[in-house]
């Protein structure tokens, strides 16, 4: 055991298809620290999935939320985005896309459900939860973590009192978790970011991004990380409920297929390039979460239809290192071999 008496191998809190009680529980039961990506979950679903995790394992787990994102409605931009989606909807045999009735879940209600679920740790991305909220959660007994993509963010999170900072390198899959400056200005690799944060902060740093095997774990520890967070590699374990189309796309992708895109959500995220990312490359889109909500029906239908060109194939740059079949417990064991006590 290491940081806060938790294992050194953490599963990244992946929202979307990987938000599965089966997967989170398998990681924790297998000797790692599973985390539920709850950003898109209704409060009732957070309660339900957390209870399911507890029914499957008595080991600790974490829950992750997106900090509230300031955004302005962009009716014209959203209409233009819906018009582009309409072409792909037609190909999939779907009705024409419509303006979403709801763009995002209520953050305060999500947080209340998370608190009631009593995970071992609550982590945040895309913002600073603030000193008052951090202190209130810590008073309730929670370990609180924030996510930084640059040193200035790490310092802000430390000033707010978080227990540790997750250093999200440029290589990591999914949405960029930064909140200061522009996403393009915070594209710092894990190898460069982790030691800078370790030197700048007085609290533990957890390395994330581009770590997929024991070598990456050892490298992160050598850079001063107190634990590592692994995402993409867990997408391909037996317990992860990815759609067959998503799984097949990950297995077929080459190293150079990794891309940063706003195409599906309006916020910069890393995944495997496909038709949607290529056809929307360089276009100005409405701010997150407007495209994210608008494209959800297409993504869900495409997953069922086996059409990977219309799915957000979030994955990190270490994807080609992540293709050994096996269980979550086997992956945790393999990664742990890179960590020395």
What does this structure look like?
This protein has 341 residues and is of the alpha/beta class. The protein has two domains: 3-69 and 104-242 and 323-336, Aldolase class I (TIM Barrel), CATH 3.20.20.70; 71-103 and 254-314, no CATH class. 39% of the residues lie in helices and 14% in strands. The chain has 13 helices and eleven strands. The protein has helices spanning 21-29, 43-56, 75-91, 107-117, 131-139, 151-159, 190-200, 214-222, 232-235, 244-252, 275-279, 290-305, 328-336, and strands spanning 9-11, 34-37, 61-66, 121-125, 143-148, 164-168, 174-175, 205-208, 227-230, 258-261, 269-272. The strands form two sheets. Strands 1-9-8-6-5-4-3-2 form an eight-stranded parallel beta sheet. The chain has a three-stranded antiparallel beta sheet with strand order 7-11-10, with no helix packed on it. Helix 2 runs parallel beside helix 4 (107-117). The radius of gyration is 19 Å and the shape is globular. The protein starts with 8 loop residues before the first strand and ends in a 5-residue tail after the last helix. The mean pLDDT is 96. It comes from Roseateles asaccharophilus. One of its GO terms (molecular function) is nitronate monooxygenase activity. Belongs to the nitronate monooxygenase family. NMO class I subfamily.
List its salient traits.
341 residues; 2 domains; eight-stranded parallel beta sheet; three-stranded antiparallel beta sheet; 13 helices; 11 strands; 39% helix
């Amino acid at each position: 055991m290491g940081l806060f008496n938790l294992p050194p191998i953490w599963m990244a809190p992946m929202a979307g298809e990987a938000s599965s009680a089966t997967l989170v529980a398998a990681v924790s039961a297998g000797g790692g620290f599973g985390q539920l990506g709850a950003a898109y979950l209704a409060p009732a679903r957070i309660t339900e999935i957390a209870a399911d995790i507890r029914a499957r394992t008595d080991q600790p787990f974490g829950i992750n939320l997106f900090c509230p994102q300031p955004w302005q409605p962009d009716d014209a931009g959203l209409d233009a985005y819906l018009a582009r989606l309409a072409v792909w909807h037609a190909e999939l045999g779907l009705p024409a896309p419509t303006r979403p009735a709801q763009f995002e879940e209520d953050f305060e209600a999500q947080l209340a459900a998370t608190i009631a679920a009593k995970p071992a740790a609550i982590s945040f991305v895309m913002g600073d939860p603030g000193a008052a909220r951090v202190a209130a959660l810590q008073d309730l007994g929670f370990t609180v973590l924030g996510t930084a993509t640059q040193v200035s963010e790490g310092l802000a999170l430390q000033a707010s009192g978080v227990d540790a900072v997750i250093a999200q390198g440029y290589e990591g899959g999914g949405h960029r978790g930064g909140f200061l400056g522009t996403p393009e200005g915070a594209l710092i690799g894990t190898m460069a970011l982790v030691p800078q944060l370790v030197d700048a902060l007085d609290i533990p740093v957890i390395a994330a991004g581009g770590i997929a095997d024991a070598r990456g774990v050892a490298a992160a520890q050598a850079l001063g990380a107190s634990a590592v967070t692994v995402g993409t590699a867990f997408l391909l374990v037996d317990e992860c409920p990815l759609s067959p189309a998503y799984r097949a796309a990950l297995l077929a992708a080459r190293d150079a297929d990794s891309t940063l895109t706003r195409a599906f959500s309006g916020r910069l995220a890393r995944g495997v390039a496909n038709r949607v990312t290529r056809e929307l490359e360089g276009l100005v889109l409405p701010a997150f979460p407007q495209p994210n909500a608008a494209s959800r029906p297409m993504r869900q239908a495409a997953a069922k239809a086996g059409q990977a060109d219309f799915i957000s194939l979030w994955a990190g740059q270490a994807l080609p290192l992540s293709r050994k079949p096996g269980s979550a417990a086997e992956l945790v064991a393999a990664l742990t071999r890179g960590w020395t006590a």
